[in-house]
């Protein structure tokens, strides 16, 4: 079930969209201004956003630009009364995936939304962040960008080397499962950058570094003797 955020200041339209999309099987959260939208996006993971441009507090285009800094591949469908060509260009250049002007047909909205989410799930669009949600008091969600060495704990960026990011991304993809030392070393050896193959004992150094960088969360890299490593949420 896809989780969507509707950002719309018109209460009647917002409630109507929410009801329609819930009926279509989506999980919905709503925000009535740009500030609330950014707060939602910092705290939760979404599969897509329906974004109005004419928002109070923070304009929709600024919301789009700011979310693109940390969520570069989150699917965004703009819904707006601004129907000029220059407005559509500004929205698409700002990072929107699609653009629908008000008033719009409900069936067309569903079709465009489904197409946008379907495109985002294809391998060519594989830059969406992987997310793990530890308890709320544990520093926020861990988000890892699978296309470049970037990760965040809540709103705070984690500084990672290429090797650390590769290890963390692999552990996140296999959360709750044991990742063997051989699997990590094979992934590293397939990368021509940063020195190529590494000695097995160097892996412990990177695991130690990652543990320190995750210290502000309750996420832990557990050493499973004789098998490998597993990313898990530590007990309180």
Automatic annotation (TrEMBL):
One of its GO terms (cellular component) is cytosol. Residues 3-117 form the Response regulatory domain. Residues 133-233 form the OmpR/PhoB-type domain. One of its GO terms (biological process) is regulation of DNA-templated transcription. GO terms for molecular function: phosphorelay response regulator activity; transcription cis-regulatory region binding. The modification 4-aspartylphosphate is found at residue 52. Residues 133-233 bind DNA. Keywords: DNA-binding, Phosphoprotein, Transcription, Transcription regulation, Two-component regulatory system. Signal peptide: none annotated. It comes from the Bacteria. This is DNA-binding response regulator. It comes from Hydrogenophaga crassostreae.
């Amino acid at each position: 079930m896809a989780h969507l955020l509707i950002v719309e200041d018109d209460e009647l339209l917002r409630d109507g969209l929410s009801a329609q999309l819930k009926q279509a099987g989506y999980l919905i959260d709503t925000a009535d201004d740009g500030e609330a939208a950014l707060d939602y996006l910092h705290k939760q993971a979404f599969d897509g956003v329906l974004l109005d441009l004419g928002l109070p507090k923070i304009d929709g285009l600024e919301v789009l630009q700011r979310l693109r800094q940390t969520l570069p591949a989150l699917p965004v469908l703009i819904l707006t009364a601004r129907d000029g060509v220059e407005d559509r260009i500004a929205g698409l250049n700002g990072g929107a995936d699609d653009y629908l002007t008000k008033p719009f047909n409900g069936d067309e909205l569903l079709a465009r939304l489904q197409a946008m989410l379907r495109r985002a799930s294809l391998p060519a669009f594989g830059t969406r962040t992987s997310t793990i949600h530890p308890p709320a008091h544990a520093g926020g969600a861990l988000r890892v960008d699978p296309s470049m060495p970037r990760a965040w704990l809540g709103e705070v960026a984690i500084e990672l080397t290429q090797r650390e990011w590769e290890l963390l991304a692999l552990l996140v993809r296999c959360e709750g499962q044991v990742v063997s030392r051989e699997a990590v070393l094979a992934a590293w050896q397939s990368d021509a950058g940063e020195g190529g193959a590494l000695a097995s004992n160097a892996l412990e150094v990177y695991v130690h570094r990652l543990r320190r960088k995750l210290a502000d969360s309750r996420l832990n890299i557990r050493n499973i003797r004789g098998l490998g490593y597993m990313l898990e949420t530590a007990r309180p």
